[in-house]
Design a protein that fits this description.
Length: about 290
Protein backbone atom coordinates (compact mmCIF):
# COMPACT_ATOMS: atom_id res chain seq x y z
CA UNK A 1 0.00 0.00 0.00
CA UNK A 2 1.35 3.45 -0.99
CA UNK A 3 1.49 5.90 1.91
CA UNK A 4 -0.55 9.04 1.11
CA UNK A 5 2.48 11.17 1.89
CA UNK A 6 4.86 9.20 -0.32
CA UNK A 7 7.41 11.09 -2.42
CA UNK A 8 5.51 10.35 -5.62
CA UNK A 9 2.21 11.63 -4.22
CA UNK A 10 3.85 14.80 -2.93
CA UNK A 11 5.58 15.44 -6.27
CA UNK A 12 2.34 15.08 -8.24
CA UNK A 13 0.45 17.31 -5.81
CA UNK A 14 3.09 20.04 -5.93
CA UNK A 15 3.09 19.88 -9.75
CA UNK A 16 -0.70 20.31 -9.93
CA UNK A 17 -0.64 23.16 -7.42
CA UNK A 18 2.05 24.95 -9.44
CA UNK A 19 0.01 24.60 -12.63
CA UNK A 20 -3.04 26.07 -10.88
CA UNK A 21 -0.91 28.88 -9.42
CA UNK A 22 0.59 29.69 -12.83
CA UNK A 23 -2.86 29.77 -14.40
CA UNK A 24 -4.25 32.07 -11.68
CA UNK A 25 -1.21 34.34 -12.02
CA UNK A 26 -1.95 34.95 -15.73
CA UNK A 27 -5.64 35.81 -15.31
CA UNK A 28 -6.37 39.45 -16.16
CA UNK A 29 -3.01 39.76 -17.92
CA UNK A 30 -2.14 40.54 -21.53
CA UNK A 31 -0.13 38.06 -23.57
CA UNK A 32 2.03 39.54 -26.34
CA UNK A 33 2.30 37.35 -29.42
CA UNK A 34 4.75 37.97 -32.24
CA UNK A 35 3.61 36.77 -35.64
CA UNK A 36 4.24 37.14 -39.33
CA UNK A 37 1.82 38.14 -42.07
CA UNK A 38 -0.02 35.06 -43.35
CA UNK A 39 -3.29 35.96 -45.03
CA UNK A 40 -6.00 35.01 -44.56
CA UNK A 41 -5.13 33.21 -41.30
CA UNK A 42 -3.09 36.01 -39.68
CA UNK A 43 -3.87 39.32 -41.35
CA UNK A 44 -4.03 42.60 -39.45
CA UNK A 45 -5.98 44.24 -42.28
CA UNK A 46 -8.74 41.60 -42.32
CA UNK A 47 -11.89 41.64 -40.20
CA UNK A 48 -11.06 40.07 -36.86
CA UNK A 49 -7.47 39.61 -37.98
CA UNK A 50 -8.17 36.32 -39.73
CA UNK A 51 -9.22 32.86 -38.53
CA UNK A 52 -6.22 32.10 -36.33
CA UNK A 53 -6.16 35.56 -34.77
CA UNK A 54 -9.82 35.23 -33.78
CA UNK A 55 -9.36 31.67 -32.51
CA UNK A 56 -6.38 32.62 -30.34
CA UNK A 57 -8.12 35.71 -28.93
CA UNK A 58 -11.28 33.79 -28.07
CA UNK A 59 -9.40 30.91 -26.44
CA UNK A 60 -7.48 33.27 -24.16
CA UNK A 61 -10.60 35.35 -23.48
CA UNK A 62 -12.28 32.35 -21.82
CA UNK A 63 -9.47 32.56 -19.24
CA UNK A 64 -9.71 36.35 -18.77
CA UNK A 65 -6.51 37.01 -20.74
CA UNK A 66 -6.19 39.72 -23.38
CA UNK A 67 -4.02 39.30 -26.48
CA UNK A 68 -1.82 41.80 -28.28
CA UNK A 69 -0.49 40.73 -31.69
CA UNK A 70 2.72 42.31 -33.00
CA UNK A 71 3.37 41.77 -36.70
CA UNK A 72 7.02 41.38 -37.66
CA UNK A 73 8.95 39.22 -40.15
CA UNK A 74 8.78 35.53 -39.24
CA UNK A 75 12.43 35.18 -38.36
CA UNK A 76 12.20 38.20 -36.06
CA UNK A 77 9.07 36.83 -34.35
CA UNK A 78 10.99 33.65 -33.59
CA UNK A 79 14.10 35.46 -32.36
CA UNK A 80 12.17 37.93 -30.20
CA UNK A 81 10.18 35.14 -28.56
CA UNK A 82 13.38 33.21 -27.94
CA UNK A 83 14.91 36.28 -26.25
CA UNK A 84 11.83 36.91 -24.13
CA UNK A 85 10.62 40.08 -25.87
CA UNK A 86 7.38 38.29 -26.78
CA UNK A 87 5.48 35.84 -24.58
CA UNK A 88 4.67 33.63 -27.56
CA UNK A 89 4.76 33.45 -31.34
CA UNK A 90 2.08 32.23 -33.74
CA UNK A 91 2.04 29.83 -35.50
CA UNK A 92 4.67 27.12 -35.96
CA UNK A 93 4.98 23.38 -36.55
CA UNK A 94 6.80 21.11 -34.10
CA UNK A 95 10.41 20.17 -34.71
CA UNK A 96 12.86 18.53 -32.26
CA UNK A 97 15.02 21.66 -32.20
CA UNK A 98 12.10 23.96 -31.44
CA UNK A 99 10.82 21.64 -28.72
CA UNK A 100 14.14 22.12 -26.90
CA UNK A 101 13.64 25.89 -26.81
CA UNK A 102 9.89 26.43 -26.65
CA UNK A 103 6.69 25.15 -25.07
CA UNK A 104 4.09 24.15 -27.66
CA UNK A 105 0.37 24.63 -27.28
CA UNK A 106 -2.23 22.12 -28.32
CA UNK A 107 -2.55 22.19 -32.14
CA UNK A 108 -4.80 24.89 -33.56
CA UNK A 109 -5.67 23.73 -37.07
CA UNK A 110 -4.44 21.28 -39.70
CA UNK A 111 -2.74 22.89 -42.68
CA UNK A 112 -2.71 20.86 -45.86
CA UNK A 113 -0.11 21.60 -48.50
CA UNK A 114 -1.24 20.79 -52.03
CA UNK A 115 0.45 20.93 -55.43
CA UNK A 116 -0.47 23.95 -57.54
CA UNK A 117 -0.06 23.51 -61.30
CA UNK A 118 -1.18 25.00 -64.58
CA UNK A 119 -4.74 24.00 -65.41
CA UNK A 120 -3.97 23.04 -69.00
CA UNK A 121 -1.31 20.54 -67.90
CA UNK A 122 -3.98 18.14 -66.66
CA UNK A 123 -1.80 17.07 -63.73
CA UNK A 124 -3.03 14.61 -61.07
CA UNK A 125 -1.17 12.28 -58.75
CA UNK A 126 -1.61 9.34 -56.38
CA UNK A 127 2.09 8.62 -55.64
CA UNK A 128 5.29 10.61 -55.97
CA UNK A 129 6.15 8.52 -59.04
CA UNK A 130 3.57 10.65 -60.86
CA UNK A 131 5.84 13.66 -60.35
CA UNK A 132 8.66 12.10 -62.38
CA UNK A 133 10.44 14.51 -64.69
CA UNK A 134 8.65 17.61 -63.41
CA UNK A 135 10.16 20.77 -61.98
CA UNK A 136 9.00 21.68 -58.47
CA UNK A 137 9.29 25.20 -57.13
CA UNK A 138 10.29 25.61 -53.49
CA UNK A 139 10.64 28.64 -51.24
CA UNK A 140 13.91 29.03 -49.37
CA UNK A 141 13.98 27.83 -45.72
CA UNK A 142 10.49 26.26 -45.88
CA UNK A 143 9.80 22.68 -44.79
CA UNK A 144 7.70 20.70 -47.27
CA UNK A 145 7.58 17.29 -45.63
CA UNK A 146 8.77 13.78 -46.39
CA UNK A 147 7.08 13.28 -49.79
CA UNK A 148 8.83 16.25 -51.39
CA UNK A 149 12.13 15.38 -49.70
CA UNK A 150 11.91 11.78 -50.92
CA UNK A 151 11.01 12.79 -54.48
CA UNK A 152 14.04 15.09 -54.60
CA UNK A 153 16.38 12.52 -53.04
CA UNK A 154 15.31 9.90 -55.60
CA UNK A 155 15.77 12.31 -58.49
CA UNK A 156 12.11 12.15 -59.48
CA UNK A 157 11.72 15.93 -59.54
CA UNK A 158 14.02 18.85 -60.19
CA UNK A 159 13.88 21.40 -57.36
CA UNK A 160 13.92 25.10 -58.23
CA UNK A 161 14.40 27.22 -55.11
CA UNK A 162 13.56 30.90 -54.85
CA UNK A 163 13.13 33.40 -52.02
CA UNK A 164 9.35 34.00 -52.07
CA UNK A 165 6.04 32.28 -52.70
CA UNK A 166 4.95 35.00 -55.12
CA UNK A 167 8.07 34.41 -57.21
CA UNK A 168 7.19 30.71 -57.41
CA UNK A 169 3.67 31.49 -58.62
CA UNK A 170 5.12 33.81 -61.27
CA UNK A 171 7.49 31.05 -62.41
CA UNK A 172 4.57 28.62 -62.53
CA UNK A 173 2.62 30.97 -64.80
CA UNK A 174 5.68 31.48 -67.01
CA UNK A 175 6.22 27.73 -67.38
CA UNK A 176 9.57 27.72 -65.58
CA UNK A 177 8.30 25.24 -62.97
CA UNK A 178 5.51 22.67 -63.14
CA UNK A 179 4.50 22.21 -59.48
CA UNK A 180 4.44 24.39 -56.38
CA UNK A 181 3.42 23.09 -52.91
CA UNK A 182 1.39 25.58 -50.89
CA UNK A 183 -1.50 25.82 -48.45
CA UNK A 184 -4.49 26.28 -50.78
CA UNK A 185 -6.16 29.16 -48.97
CA UNK A 186 -2.95 31.13 -48.59
CA UNK A 187 -2.15 30.38 -52.21
CA UNK A 188 -5.54 31.57 -53.37
CA UNK A 189 -5.28 34.76 -51.28
CA UNK A 190 -1.84 35.47 -52.68
CA UNK A 191 -2.89 34.83 -56.26
CA UNK A 192 -6.00 37.01 -55.86
CA UNK A 193 -3.90 39.91 -54.58
CA UNK A 194 -1.29 39.59 -57.30
CA UNK A 195 -3.08 38.57 -60.51
CA UNK A 196 -6.31 39.33 -62.34
CA UNK A 197 -9.23 36.90 -62.72
CA UNK A 198 -8.22 35.73 -66.20
CA UNK A 199 -4.76 34.80 -64.91
CA UNK A 200 -6.27 32.91 -61.95
CA UNK A 201 -8.17 30.72 -64.40
CA UNK A 202 -4.84 29.35 -65.62
CA UNK A 203 -3.85 27.89 -62.24
CA UNK A 204 -5.42 25.18 -60.11
CA UNK A 205 -4.29 22.53 -57.62
CA UNK A 206 -4.65 18.83 -57.03
CA UNK A 207 -6.56 18.31 -53.75
CA UNK A 208 -4.45 15.36 -52.55
CA UNK A 209 -2.40 16.78 -49.65
CA UNK A 210 1.34 16.52 -50.12
CA UNK A 211 1.81 17.39 -46.45
CA UNK A 212 -0.41 17.65 -43.38
CA UNK A 213 1.02 19.84 -40.62
CA UNK A 214 -0.47 20.97 -37.33
CA UNK A 215 0.48 24.47 -36.25
CA UNK A 216 0.80 25.74 -32.68
CA UNK A 217 1.51 28.67 -30.45
CA UNK A 218 5.09 28.57 -29.18
CA UNK A 219 5.90 29.99 -25.74
CA UNK A 220 9.29 31.11 -24.44
CA UNK A 221 10.34 28.13 -22.31
CA UNK A 222 12.52 30.28 -20.03
CA UNK A 223 9.71 32.72 -19.17
CA UNK A 224 8.20 32.46 -15.68
CA UNK A 225 4.73 32.91 -17.21
CA UNK A 226 5.13 30.51 -20.13
CA UNK A 227 3.59 27.48 -18.43
CA UNK A 228 0.64 29.49 -17.14
CA UNK A 229 -0.06 31.08 -20.52
CA UNK A 230 0.24 27.73 -22.29
CA UNK A 231 -2.08 26.01 -19.81
CA UNK A 232 -4.57 28.88 -20.06
CA UNK A 233 -4.60 28.73 -23.85
CA UNK A 234 -4.99 24.95 -23.97
CA UNK A 235 -7.84 25.14 -21.47
CA UNK A 236 -9.50 27.90 -23.50
CA UNK A 237 -9.12 26.00 -26.75
CA UNK A 238 -10.65 22.91 -25.13
CA UNK A 239 -13.58 25.07 -23.99
CA UNK A 240 -14.16 26.35 -27.54
CA UNK A 241 -14.08 22.79 -28.87
CA UNK A 242 -16.49 21.50 -26.23
CA UNK A 243 -19.04 24.29 -26.61
CA UNK A 244 -19.03 24.14 -30.42
CA UNK A 245 -17.49 27.55 -30.99
CA UNK A 246 -14.36 26.08 -32.56
CA UNK A 247 -16.40 24.28 -35.22
CA UNK A 248 -18.41 27.46 -35.85
CA UNK A 249 -15.21 29.37 -36.61
CA UNK A 250 -13.89 26.58 -38.84
CA UNK A 251 -17.19 26.30 -40.74
CA UNK A 252 -17.34 30.06 -41.28
CA UNK A 253 -13.80 30.08 -42.64
CA UNK A 254 -14.35 27.10 -44.92
CA UNK A 255 -17.59 28.60 -46.25
CA UNK A 256 -15.65 31.75 -47.07
CA UNK A 257 -13.17 29.59 -48.97
CA UNK A 258 -15.88 28.47 -51.34
CA UNK A 259 -17.67 31.81 -51.65
CA UNK A 260 -14.39 33.60 -52.39
CA UNK A 261 -13.13 30.94 -54.80
CA UNK A 262 -14.79 32.63 -57.75
CA UNK A 263 -12.82 30.76 -60.38
CA UNK A 264 -14.10 27.44 -61.62
CA UNK A 265 -10.63 25.95 -61.23
CA UNK A 266 -10.51 26.42 -57.45
CA UNK A 267 -14.00 25.51 -56.24
CA UNK A 268 -13.90 21.72 -56.87
CA UNK A 269 -10.52 21.32 -55.22
CA UNK A 270 -11.47 23.39 -52.18
CA UNK A 271 -14.73 21.49 -51.73
CA UNK A 272 -12.94 18.13 -51.84
CA UNK A 273 -10.22 19.31 -49.49
CA UNK A 274 -12.75 20.50 -46.90
CA UNK A 275 -14.31 17.03 -46.82
CA UNK A 276 -11.03 15.32 -46.00
CA UNK A 277 -10.64 16.55 -42.38
CA UNK A 278 -9.55 16.18 -39.68
CA UNK A 279 -11.11 19.29 -38.14
CA UNK A 280 -10.63 18.81 -34.38
CA UNK A 281 -7.10 19.21 -33.00
CA UNK A 282 -5.62 16.23 -31.13
CA UNK A 283 -5.28 16.69 -27.39
CA UNK A 284 -1.49 16.65 -27.29
CA UNK A 285 1.18 19.30 -27.94
CA UNK A 286 3.06 17.76 -30.87
CA UNK A 287 1.16 14.92 -32.60
Amino acid sequence: MVHPLSAGWITRTVFLVLLLFNSLETQGRTVEIGTGFWPPYLDQSAEGGGFLTRLIREAFATQDIQVRFIYVPWSRALAMTRSGQFDATAVWSCTPTREEEFLFSRPLYPFRYVLFHRKNDGFSWSSIKDWAGLRIGLTQDYAYGSKVATAIARGLVRPDITTSDRANFQKLLLGRIDLFPMDPLTGFAMLSETFDASTLERITFDPHPVRLAWYHLMFNRSSDEATGFREAFDTGLATLIENGRYQQLVTAMESAWLSDAITSTFKPGLAELIQQGPTLPPNEPCP
